[in-house]
Amino acid sequence: MDLKIKDVAKLLNVSEETVRRWLAEGTIPAYRLNHQVRFSREEIQNWMMNSRMNRSQEEPSAQKISLSDEKAEALISNRMGTQAYSLFRALYKGSVLHEIAASSKEKVIEEAVQIIAKNLSLDANVLTELLLDREQLMPTGLNHGVAVPHPRDFLLQKPFDVVTVVYPREPIEYGSLDGQKVHTLFFLFAASDKSHLHLLAKLAHFTRQEKTLAFLKQKPEKNELLDYVKAWEATLRPSVDASASV
């Protein structure tokens, strides 16, 4: 799906001037079509996922485009408003699945989707295929043992977003950039492009905290996780004009 500058600005809740500045700095992925700048929605999603990754753990030769920590935080703050507690609400609608016994990424996804699809009244085979197709295109593993499986070109036909957390019995190989095995998976299903990108950015930000990572390794129950996420989101404050500083 080709996006224009105005489309990206609307999705990310920043000004068109900010998007043009990112283009000039070479910090946002784009291409030219008939001499006009265009963006791939999928590349923007990947960019958001990688926005909080620790650059020191990336290969020096890796051609990655990412936001600085300050810009990522400003972008999340700028999008707060009605998105306050959005991760808490999405987790509340989802489930927390413990002790998934499968030992590979594909099998963990297949096993988890059998439960997730039933809860969402979706076809498990179709949903599994969508998720695995996304993984083949590019693994959804963040650094530090966390992954965010999500389908491409698919929106949840419901008035809310859903995030389901899955803890494999043992950490699994996932193809993450830092090479670490994954101990926690956040399955993300969004109802709109804006909420999808917002939740990706928020999850990347959330799982960058050392305290959070230690907490997730304890495989907390749903109520414990909800309390933790709600307290964390309460610390986020909308900026007066974050788009001007990004």
Can you walk me through this structure?
- The protein has 246 residues and is α/β, with parallel strands linked by helices.
- Helices cover 46% and strands 12% of the residues.
- The chain contains eleven helices and seven strands.
- The chain has helices at residues 5-12, 16-25, 41-49, 69-78, 86-93, 105-120, 124-137, 193-206, 210-216, 222-234, 242-245; strands spanning 2-3, 31-33, 36-40, 96-100, 146-147, 162-168, 184-189.
- Strand 2 (31-33) and strand 3 (36-40) form a beta hairpin.
- The protein is globular, with a radius of gyration of 17 Å.
* H/I helix tally: 11
Describe the main β-sheet briefly: 4 strands, mixed
Q: Which spans of ≥5 residues are poorly predicted at pLDDT below 50? A: 52-70, 239-246
- Overall pLDDT confidence: 83
Question: From the helix content, strand content and strand pairing, which structural class follows?
Answer: alpha/beta
Rounded to the nearest angstrom, the distance between the terminal CA atoms is 25 Å
Helix content: 40-55%
The CATH class of the largest domain is: Alpha Beta
Oligomer state equals single chain
Q: Count of DSSP E strands? A: 7
Listing every helix as H and every strand as E from the N terminus to the C terminus, the arrangement reads EHHEEHHHEHHEEEHHHH
Strand content: 5-15%
For the largest beta sheet, what order do the strands appear in spatially?
4-6-7-5
Shape: globular
CATH architectural label of the largest domain: 3-Layer(aba) Sandwich
